[in-house]
Amino acid sequence: ENGEEIAKCKSCGAHIRANSTRNGTSGLRSHNSSCKSKLKSTDETQTLLNFSTVSGLSSEISMTTLRCDQETIRKALVELVVGAELPFKFVTRHEFKHFMNIVCPKFKVPSRWTVQRDVYELFCSQKEKMKKILTKSGQRVCLTTDCWTFCQNVSYLCLTAHYIDENWILHKSLLNFCPISSHKGGDWYDCC
Questions:
Q1: Cα gap 56→109, rounded to integer Å
Q2: What is the mean pLDDT of residues 10-35?
Q3: Dihedral, 92, 98, 99, 104 alpha carbons, nearest 10
Q4: Residue 41 has what pLDDT?
């Protein structure tokens, strides 16, 4: 245009001066990093190449592909928080964010509020799953209670269901876990 070399962005159609002798490539590089259309068109689930040494030998290199699936990693993160009994604010720690940036740079670490919602959704889905299992088979269920006191002198009551499925496998599921005022039987009624 007008005797000047102009480059056209394939994503957004913007015109950028492209004369390498006069303008250099900084304008192209700057537009490439800030192009909103390009950023939207990147596929978050696209696989990445990973080069690693085999058995610690630097002469042998293997190539594998890595896939960053946001939903799968979020589900695994929720299972980690629940299974390891971690606080929700664990995901806001600098060390965890640094670890996730190294493991999967494309993964967007959720906030602690998002993790809390995900844990609650997991709880609700497991609760519905347990209801279906117990009503579907019609077998007998044995309920047991267990009382214990935490090191801060807070007493808790656990309600556990034991049942045998159609394959004769014994299952144990925690139905309720609540604080109680004392170990006396009359105080348990308010909890359950």
A1: 30
A2: 72
A3: 100
A4: 46
Query: Residue type at 62?
Result: S
Residue 190 has pLDDT above 70, yes or no: no
Q: Which two tokens stand for residue 133?
A: 């299992």
- The pLDDT tens digits for 39-57 are 554 555 555 555 555 555 5
Please check whether residue 77 is in contact with residue 110, taking contact to mean a CB–CB distance below 8 angstroms: yes
Torsion of CA 149, 150, 155, 157, to 10 degrees: -80
pTM of the model: 0.55
Give the closest residue to 50 by CA, choosing from 99, 98, 105, 97.
Answer: 105
User: How many whole angstroms separate alpha carbon 192 and alpha carbon 176?
Assistant: 8
Mean pLDDT, all residues of the chain: 78
DSSP characters over 93-109: SHHHHHHHHHH-TT--P
Phi, psi of 33 (to 5 degrees): -80, -20
Beta strands in the chain (DSSP E): 6-8, 15-17, 48-54, 57-66, 142-149, 155-164, 170-180
Amino acid making up residue 109 = V
- CA–CA gap between residue 165 and residue 187 (Å, rounded): 33
Contact of 160 with 173, CB cutoff 8 Å: yes
